[in-house]
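YM 10:42: NADP-dependent oxidoreductase domain-containing protein sequence, as discussed on the call
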Amino acid sequence: MSLPTRSLERNGPQVPAVGVGLMSLGNMHGFASALDDKVAFLEPAYSIGARSWDTADLYFDSDHTVREWVKKLGNLNNIFLATKFAIQYDVATGTQITCSNP
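YM 10:58: structure's back
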């Protein structure tokens, strides 16, 4: 199985037309899984051609999971990684806050 691709520019790289959102991978919905289980999710996604991944610091540890998977793979050259920052979740109050600290 392969995913259809689109060109980013006229002569730009080909990226999958469908991306993989990683919010749930980061336990955003409260289902904590072991790191090995999370990394195991990324392997079949990658094997069928999923190369466009979306993460954010708000998604708890999804970015950490991607980093661990990349360490296992050895490079990130053919992954198109979209990330967002500056929104954090305040667990104590249950609200979102803006914080652009690195």
